Amino acid sequence: MYGVNQVLSALVDLIRQRVRVVARRRAASAAIVALVPLLMQACASSSPVVETGDAGRYTLHASAAGGNAAWARSHKAVMQSASNFCAQRGEVPSVVSESSRGVRALETHEAQLTFECHPHF
Known about the structure:
Elements: H1 2-41, E1 44-46, E2 50-51, E3 57-64, H2 70-87, E4 91-101, E5 109-119
Antiparallel strand pairs: 1-3, 2-3, 3-5, 4-5
């Protein structure tokens, strides 16, 4: 009977080890799935602000890696860049025109913004 108890004890220990390994793998997989959207949010970049040639008008371009909300990230990037640019002058941006490209989930989304800076009212 003593040998059977040892075998059962060893079997229970082995099962516990396997359960811990599976739990760790699931936790790692869940962490990766949770990080992917965060990493994709960081994938938006915008170009430097460029004068258009029209007095007081500027343009810039931004792109974001594909995903469900890449269009929003590219839009946010151009708007934030325009706000920062105008804020350096003590002004606020006013959108003249905005266009975007890329609507599929796995393609790069792009936004083009033309804006002016105006004083705070």
